[in-house]
DNA sequence: ATCTATAATTTGTCTAGTTGTATATTGATG
DNA sequence: CATCAATATACAACTAGACAAATTATAGAT
């Protein structure tokens, strides 16, 4: 079986670190030329590598090497950058911001009326240059004005809150469910459509109980473990 | 299909009122970043939204929502249509003025000779920041001298007439037809070429029967209902 | 201040390249 | 002959990049 040899060779290359995390490996056509086989034979080898979690592919772009796994601790004070425990360095990036009216759900979670405005920030979290989470956060206007402009330059929510004079905040509630990735979510998280995701809905509050953030985060299921703490 | 999900999400955002009528939605590049796709994939989603009539785009400027989603708010539209028989629209703006010889048609409508001059004012009317009508008005020189300079600072015709000493005037005749949008009209009204328009020709007169205005107005068909009252 | 020339944005269009999917064919093996 | 691996071919969906055309923002000059 030709494709198994190719799989073995590619796996060795990845493990040997010839391609670092997040890096693009040669195209299927190129690999087919190199191994002197048909493109579909290469695809079969890549398919196994994909299932094993070593690489992920983006239609139209190429095949990329997957990063490492991590665990995410959820407690009373959860901060993304401090709570990811792994070998790699986590980073995050804000992909879009907007200000709009609150939906019914958001209004309820943030103690607002639907006529009130919310600031919305959407972003991705990375580990080893590969996406590991996607988050949408709603902040109540009035209590958090100016947070979006801050987040655009520095994606750290802790820093942003600090800049607004909020030195400390607490996790009030955390709801965790499991969902499967839609095409869009799969694309954003560079995982397969239908892959299991962890969906975390959370509310952060001030020490006096005033809600200041309602967020929904999706983690890639098989790259992330949530550990919940009740101290 | 990624672009279909993006289309669905954008449509939801528009429907939910996250972007209000006439407002600019994020640029294609921004949306591409947010959904983590190529700009062309966003364009395909926007293309469907355009075809469905929810947004329109202006090269070099951006993509804007049409306000079609807000048409179920009959209140504004009703008030709007009530005002058609009298003076004007909630927000209007004079785009150009000129003084020239009367055409044969204008001369007939305004009881002039073709050697007489007419003052011409062209303008746009807006509803919720979206253009909804285009009007051209001809005023007979001699009876309405100085009206153009006034209209340029204040687009209200009632005020302009009042400034000329005309406290009251009546609608003599109103003709309504349906036409399709030419390229020029489509551009001014931010609608598609070939879109259905309502064309209203009207003549306003003094209480003694002297005509003081002949006008042609085009309304966007699917955003406007004319209600005709015979009191 | 106001107008003007320049630069920066933003949409429209085009070409090329890459992965995903479906179907059909070849060739060796039992 | 039936089966399975590999090949061959074609198309769809998406990415990547470049450039043109229209608009908007910016800086400079008068």
Give an account of the 3D structure.
2 copies of one chain form a homodimer. With 231 residues, the first copy, chain A, is an alpha+beta fold. Chain A has 2 domains: 2-65, Winged helix-like DNA-binding domain superfamily/Winged helix DNA-binding domain (Arc Repressor Mutant, subunit A, Orthogonal Bundle); 70-228, Chorismate lyase-like (Chorismate lyase), CATH 3.40.1410.10. The first copy, chain A, is 29% helix and 38% strand. Chain A contains 8 helices and 12 strands. Chain A has a 6-stranded antiparallel β-sheet, sandwiched between helices. A 3-stranded antiparallel β-sheet of chain A has the order 1-3-2. In chain A, a hairpin with a 3-residue loop joins β2 (55-58) and β3 (62-65). The N and C termini of chain A lie far apart (55 Å). The A-B interface holds A 60, 95-96, 98, 100-101, 103, 122, 124, 131, 182-184, 187-188 and B 1-2, 5-6, 9, 16-19, 26, 30-31, 33-38. The structure holds a DNA duplex (30 and 30 nucleotides).
Please tag this protein with its features.
DNA-binding, Chorismate lyase, 6-stranded antiparallel sheet, 231 residues, homodimer
